[in-house]
TrEMBL record:
Entries under InterPro entries matching the protein: PA_dom_sf, PA_domain, Peptidase_M28, Peptidase_M28B, TFR-like_dimer_dom_sf
Bilayer topology: Single-pass type II membrane protein
All residue ranges annotated as the PA domain in the record: 145-228
Enzyme Commission code: 3.4.17.21
Domain Peptidase M28 intervals: 297-483
Organism this protein belongs to: Tripterygium wilfordii (Thunder God vine)
Major place of residence: membrane
Reactions it catalyzes: Release of an unsubstituted, C-terminal glutamyl residue, typically from Ac-Asp-Glu or folylpoly-gamma-glutamates
Protein name: glutamate carboxypeptidase II
Superkingdom, taxonomy of origin: Eukaryota
């Protein structure tokens, strides 16, 4: 009886303590978000294992099950979530074949076109679910011809062939991956007059260069039978609904009209392995299946308190060509880790100033389809309400931090990486390691359609970023991109996953919570100056003056500098030292720093 009374009294006292004192400042929660007590590499590992247990190509039942897993996980974190479905044009292989006829005297060689299972492969039971190797949106048909080797299939490679007197017309081009987008290789071959293209993964680029290099599972390199599959589509969104969403019953353009637009090659092509690519080929063929399939974006929403109609959007795609442990589900696991930590912050009383939207896209691999359809459907709302879009496609593929953004987010990216420890060197921050790397630290730009940021940047002009650990990995888009590869070579302890989630979430928190949005347009002005100078060099001597352009950029720089100065001299509010005791951990924070830990269950505030 006495014990019950004491427990009741403690509960009442704890409740009163939350009402007696105001909630901590937002910076407290930001520091708490990146603390080790809230991160959970074991949960990340579990998410990745679950998501990659089966191949899950867009439009398949396996990918729908993966969507339900993400949905149920977000809902379990008390983040209201739903699925946004679209009916889009996807292609799947029905049959394909490749035959080599060395000469008239020798019998033809028929290639098996399959990726081999290795001894002890834990995914052998589901290997049959891996789609046959193919190029999405490749032209169906059967062609034959002499083989012409075109190196990486770049424009300059075809120019070299022309200078050598090699006529590509009527031939089948053999080219290797590694320098340009696969769709551009096939387009370049088509423009040169080729009737077909075969793309292979050269051992020099993906197999460790031969010699003593070990391939997976003994090493990180692509096995000789490994094949890089992927899409040839050079656009974004459903090819049959350019500019509008692929909702049920919507208007669509015809296949002929899709071809006229020019975003898909008009010749057949196949991806093949290094082993097959090292042989000379002469014929290629096989039909494909085009179908309208249902794709599913998973959308979770944490509503903002003061500005609920302003959205900070985080996105990663879920669909993969095979198991997708690196691309993309290392990013999906990191997204769920961010969601988990945000749930924990809410238990401590945090609520974002602006709404945070968590998006798990579908059909990115086919051509950024899920994200583009969502943007097209919600274009008016997003163009006026979206604050920023933060993308993580491949979360982890190896060591080394890499980031790209629109320029106004440069400084925020740097500040976020200054607060998170390097997962491979705990004695310094990610930013310090970044400074010492070959990137030093170069923030790339978001040109082209490399990932799901494209629709946000190019369609509606929303500030955006993209980040990852590692740059390129040998088993890209092959059936060997699985949980075992990640566990052995990509991130054995899942510390890089924790780190990318920390940076990603910290960016989101600053954008969602800061009273004044943390954009710095000085970086934008400097970037515009560089571009203007490049343009000036191109028009030199052509009687074109860029003086008005430089004048406008100078005015932007002046205004941006004035804003930054005013932000720095704004009156500082009275600071508090906050101490939060919960779950056996004590956080003592002033000016956003975690200082010490202990264990007592109470909350207190001291003015300073």
């Amino acid at each position: 009886m006495i014990k019950t009374a004491i427990l009741t009294l403690l509960a009442i006292a704890t409740s009163f303590s939350f009402f007696l004192f105001p909630l901590p400042p937002k910076s407290f929660y930001h520091s708490l978000f990146i603390s080790s007590s809230l991160s959970d590499n074991a949960s990340i590992s579990h998410h990745l294992y679950t998501l990659t247990r089966r191949p899950h190509v867009a439009g398949t039942q396996a990918n729908a099950e993966a969507a339900n897993y993400v949905l149920s996980t977000l809902n379990s974190y008390n983040i209201p979530s739903h699925i946004a479905s679209y009916q889009v044009l996807l292609t799947y292989p029905i049959s394909r074949s490749l035959t080599l006829k060395p000469n008239r005297a020798d019998p033809p060689v028929h290639f098996e076109l399959r990726q081999e299972i290795y001894d002890g492969d834990p995914y052998a039971d589901v290997a049959g679910e891996v789609l046959p190797t193919f190029h999405a949106y490749a032209k169906s048909g059967t062609v034959s011809g002499l083989v012409v080797y075109a190196n990486y299939g770049r424009v300059e490679d075809f120019d070299t062939l022309k200078e050598m007197g090699v006529n590509v017309s009527g031939c089948i081009v053999l080219a290797r991956y590694g320098q340009i987008f696969r769709g551009s290789i096939v387009q370049n071959a088509m423009k040169a007059g080729a009737v077909g293209a075969v793309l292979y993964t050269d051992r020099k680029d993906y197999g460790g260069g031969g010699g003593d290099a070990k391939w997976f599972p003994d090493g990180k390199w692509m096995p000789p039978s490994g094949v890089q599959v992927g899409s040839l589509y050079n656009g974004s969104g459903d090819p049959t609904t350019p500019g509008w969403a692929s909702t049920e019953g919507c208007e669509r353009i015809s296949e002929e009209e899709v071809e006229i637009i020019g975003d898909v090659p008009l010749i057949p092509s196949l991806p093949i392995s290094a082993a097959d690519g090292e042989k000379i080929m002469e014929s290629i063929g096989g039909p494909g299946n085009q179908t309208i399939a249902t794709i599913q974006n998973v959308i979770g929403v944490i509503e903002g308190k003061e500005e609920p109609d302003r959205f900070v959007i985080l996105g990663n795609h879920r669909d993969a060509w095979t198991f997708g442990a690196v691309d993309p589900n290392s990013g999906t696991a990191a997204l769920l880790e961010v969601a988990s930590r945000l749930k924990k912050l809410q238990k401590f009383g945090w609520r974002p100033r602006r709404t945070i939207v968590l998006c798990n896209w579908d059909a990115e691999e086919y051509g950024l389809i899920g994200s583009t359809e969502w943007v097209e459907e919600n274009k008016e709302m997003l163009s006026s309400r979206a604050v920023a879009y933060l993308n993580v496609d491949i979360g982890v593929g190896g060591a080394g931090f890499h980031a790209s953004s629109t320029p106004q987010l440069d400084e925020l990216l740097k500040k976020a990486t200054q607060q998170v420890k390097d997962p491979d060197n705990s004695s310094q921050t990610i930013y310090e390691s970044w400074l010492g790397s070959s990137n030093s630290p170069v923030i790339g730009r978001l040109g082209g359609g490399g990932s799901d940021y494209a629709a946000f940047v190019q369609h509606i002009g929303v500030p955006a970023s993209d980040m990852s650990f590692g740059e390129g990995y040998p088993v890209y888009h092959s059936m060997y991109d699985d949980f075992i590869w990640m566990k052995k070579f990509g991130d054995p302890m899942f510390h890089r996953h924790v780190a990318v989630a920390s940076v990603w979430g910290l960016l989101a928190l600053r954008l969602a919570d800061d009273r004044i949005l943390p954009f710095n347009y000085l970086s934008y002005a400097l970037e515009l100056q560089k571009s203007a100078k490049d343009l000036e060099d191109q028009v030199l001597g052509k009687g074109i003056s860029l003086a008005p352009l430089f004048k406008s950029i100078a005015e932007l720089e002046e205004v941006a500098a004035n804003i930054e100065t005013r932000k720095k001299v704004m009156p500082l509010k009275r600071q508090r030292v906050w101490t939060l005791y919960s779950h056996g951990v004590l956080y003592n924070m002033k000016f956003g720093e975690l200082l010490e830990w202990s264990d007592m269950p109470r909350l207190s505030s001291v003015a300073s």
